Prior knowledge:
This protein is α+β, with helices and mostly antiparallel strands and 309 residues long.
Amino acid sequence: MRRLAEQKKVVDRWRGMEQRTSEVAELMSLEDDSLQAEIEAEVEKLALHLDEIELEAAFSSEYDARNAILAIHAGAGGTESQDWAQMLMRMYLRWAERRRYQAEVLDLSPGEEAGIKSVVIGVNGDYANGYLRSEHGVHRLVRLSPFDSDHARHTSFAMVEVMPEAEPGVDVRIEPDDLKVETFRSSGPGGQHMQKTSSAVRLTHLPSGLAVSCQSERSQHQNKEIAMKILRSRLLELELVKRAEERAKLKGKHIAAGWGNQIRSYVLHPYKMVKDHRTDYQTGDTEAVLDGELDGFINAYLRSIVGDE
């Protein structure tokens, strides 16, 4: 039923496009010069709408229409990289806000001095996973460090992971015997409650070795539910990566994964520029990008993969 509803939306958009095109054709057939400005404006709107629909042709995966689970991990470099990870977290939260998606921080591990070590964000909305998958990879920042007394130039790295939200019992089945559940006391800020109760939960999926922990909520039950949600998505992503690798072998393609896959550089000094290394799309408006204006990069990536899958 979910997939049927998704396909109905696609059909309705094309039918609407067909109707509007027919109406413009009728206006043009009147050959009335006073209607010229109206016709030109409507043709421009149709062109933009067609552009959006064609872009959605890049959504070839059955999971593209899903909600997304986005994880950010600070790289080596201590406080500098942890601050960069927090800047990325803000960037994606602002992007979600611009698109009117619902974004919720599911789990966060704060940095020792500033920034964050890691964060997991749930992003809910139509095609959230399809749009955000362009962000999967290593993001590099070059700037004058605010944490260096000499204000030297530093390079920081952070890993962004994007996974489709898995449906319980449909996409992934986790047997109780395959799950190891551990509880421990939460660390980081949170007051006396965080220190006195073992509310944090760590889940380990024994067959795959995947481990997920959550300590954001005060309730052990809530933390376990969130950890299960993240674990299911990680297991689904693991299966999707295996499928992609198999397809890549058949096509003779190389798939770069993990920390070796640097996808985008954000340079704030000695000049200002954000450049995507996969599409060569770039902009000098770094402030706008870090404030969530990512559609240019996302659209360029989606166009580059149309027909490639």
